[in-house]
Prior knowledge:
By secondary structure, this protein is an alpha+beta fold. It is built from three helices and three strands, in the order E-E-H-H-E-H. Helix content is 36%, strand content 18%. The protein has a three-stranded mixed sheet.
Amino acid sequence: MIKYNNLDDAIVGVTDDVVSSEKRYIYDYNKCVESLIAKGETEQDAIDWIDYNVLGSYLGKDTPIIMFTDSKYIKWKIMIKYYAL
C-alpha cells in the first residue's frame, strides 16, 4: 500500500479495491491540508501542495483514495479539472 509522506494523521481508513485486488489507504482531503498547516505551511501553500502532489498524481493501481467530506478547502477549479464535475 502506498502512503503519502507526512500525512499519516490524515488517513481515515483502508479499502479493498475490488478492481485491482489491492488494499488502498483513504485520506481525508481537509485533514491533509490541516496536517500541512500544523507543520508550518500557510493554508494556501498547503492547498496548492495537496492539489498538485496528491490530487495531481497517479501512482498506479494502489494510488491512495482521497475523500472529500466538505468544501472547506476545496478549490472548485481543481475538482472540475480532475473529476469533471
